[in-house]
Each structure stands twice: as structure tokens, then as C-alpha cells.
UniProtKB/TrEMBL annotation:
Family membership: Belongs to the bacterial ring-hydroxylating dioxygenase ferredoxin component family.
Cofactors demanded by this protein: [2Fe-2S] cluster
Organism the protein comes from: Paraburkholderia largidicola
Lineage start: Bacteria, Pseudomonadati, Pseudomonadota, Betaproteobacteria, Burkholderiales
Protein known as: Rieske domain-containing protein
GO molecular-function terms, A-Z: 2 iron, 2 sulfur cluster binding; metal ion binding
Boundaries of every Rieske domain copy: 5-99
């Protein structure tokens, strides 16, 4: 079973930009890479560092803490199949961007947020958008 969490208006993250949002008690980083949208958990699977400021080369993100690299398309380290990021599917529904959460992705409900349709809305972890 999965559910959708609103993340704002589609197109608000321009190519080359990224944005952090707060969803169900976790920080998610949204990337626009050449028009393709990718969403990952902000926590590095190696030791929990924030990945939101990692250097991005194509679709490969380098963790700023120890330099492990992860392919945003698969969540995996390129070529080795080692550690894997938590990735989330993103869809556009009625001109709004939504994050698709599977049951195992969901953190315990915190009772915050929601839109007029009764669907939860993502909240920004940080107020800035980064290139
Ligand atoms: S915490 Fe990311 S590589 Fe170590």
C-alpha cells in the first residue's frame, strides 16, 4: 500500500536545483537533474550525514562527509552495489508534485500538515533552494 504526499507545484524546482522538504518526520531532498525529478532521504546510509549539500555530478551525488557516491536514479553506489540510499518515487498529479510513500517508507504519523483535500503536505526543512 502506498500513499501520496504533496510537495508543491510541479516545476517550482528548476533544472539544476534541489530542495529539502520535511515529510512524515523525515527530511527528503528533491533534485531536478535535467528535468528529471529524484527524491531521496537526506540521511547518508554510511553514517547519517546530510546529503542535501552533496556535490552532484550528473546523477551521481557525493556525500559531503566521507565522499561515498550514490546514483540518484538507483540509490546505489555506482558499480559496486554497496550501500543504498532510500529513494522515493515522484509523480505529478493535477499540476502538483507528489511523493509516493510505500508503507515501509512512512515514519510514524506526527499529526502535522495537510491540505484542503485532507492529504498531507510536505513542509520545507530549510528555506533555501540550492543549485
Ligand atoms: S556519512 Fe556519507 S559517506 Fe560517510
Amino acid at each position: 500500500m502506498s500513499r501520496q504526499v504533496g510537495m508543491g507545484v510541479a516545476g517550482e524546482i528548476e533544472p539544476g536545483q534541489r530542495k529539502r522538504v520535511f515529510v512524515d518526520g523525515r527530511c527528503v531532498v528533491i533534485f531536478n537533474v535535467d528535468g528529471e525529478i529524484y527524491a531521496i532521504d537526506d540521511s547518508c546510509p554510511h553514517n547519517g550525514a546530510s546529503l542535501g549539500n552533496g556535490e552532484l555530478e550528473g546523477c551521481v551525488l557525493r556525500c559531503p562527509a566521507h565522499g561515498l557516491r550514490f546514483d540518484l536514479r538507483t540509490g546505489r553506489t555506482p558499480g559496486t552495489g554497496g550501500l543504498s540510499l532510500t529513494t522515493f518515487a515522484v509523480a505529478t498529479v493535477d499540476s502538483k508534485r507528489v511523493l509516493i510513500l510505500d508503507e515501509h517508507d512512512a515514519a510514524p504519523a506526527n499529526g502535522t500538515g495537510g491540505n484542503a483535500a485532507g492529504q498531507p503536505e510536505a513542509q520545507h526543512c530549510a528555506t533555501r533552494q540550492e543549485k
